[in-house]
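User: Mind token order:
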Amino acid sequence: MFSEVYSEGAILKDQQLEGKSCSLMGMKVLQKATRGRTAGLFSLIDTMWPPAMPLKAPGRGQAHEEVETRVPPPSFCYILSAHPSVGQIDVIEEDRISKLYQPPVTRCLREILQSDDHSTRCSFYARVIYQRSQLNDLLLLQQREIWLMVTDVSLQMQDENNSGLPKTVPVCVAPSCVLSQEVVEALAEATPHSFLFRDTLRAQGQIVCVERSVLLLQKPLVGMASSAPSCELTSPVKLNELDSVTQVNSVCSVQGTVVGVDESTAFSWPTCDLCGNERLEQSPGDRGAFSCGDCSRVVISPLPRRHLQVFLDCPSRPQCTVRVKLSQASVSSLLRFAACEDGSYEAQSVLGKEVGLLNCFVRSVTTHPASCVGLEEIELLTAGRASSRHC
């Protein structure tokens, strides 16, 4: 019989209960959950079935292994609640792991993607190479998804003539997935971190961290096999080049020739040359100077930032409109020799220029009425560097 216990506040921290035999006091039954109504809960229970110890046949004193094969997974589960005043969970045997405990089985991403197991839970180690959502905004809104682009050695070490598996995988962290403060702080640093993605749900071609999924900074777990795959990468991360199977909310590399500029969305704005503040105010009486509220100083030589989207002719996607929002570095490189005497730029001056390889996030993919891909150039998380900002 399985039960899930809801408690108010943390009874014990840092998985101190995991794998331990415990006694429960002051519990009450909230409901009897069934497989049809709470599929997410039972997808987790299925990872712990069959039990590690042989089941006993009713009326017999000895355990019979043949009985275990005939017992189907449970079809119901009790949802328990710890009473705020008398609810208590105590470890029965300190520093011992229960014989019933089954630690999560981690697999490499390549094995997970090649398996036919869908609508099931999976655990894996992976390196986060790009984080789409700004975590500070997420903490304020509390209802947004976080998209993490991850990879491991098994995907990065593929041969060029391999089975067509991607070199990176998008992982969606749903609002229902509760993140620890340690994980929140690690993601807010915008530096590369390796995580254990535990009990994630693989469904409809996506890997999603949902309720009951756990994210942990890469550390050995109690009971975790020492042969668990590592996601430590010894060489720069490689991305798949943009092609006909590239999906939205993924990352890819792209190169091509500039065949057009979206002049309707092109604009520039001044930033502080000291702190980078983008909210400068015009100094009274001096149209050529700005004041920076963050530095409390007059900015005489502001640094310009530019928003520029170009259309590329890409050999990897012929007869497809490829629209790329360029990063500041790429804009500066593209416009370096295209400035007019008055400081303006002519769109014709950048046509025919070669760009790439660019690392990009796939914002949109459409096939009707015409084939079009919308990309945004990004900066991957590498040691000592933060991810690029985006609107």
Notes: The chain has seven helices and 21 strands.
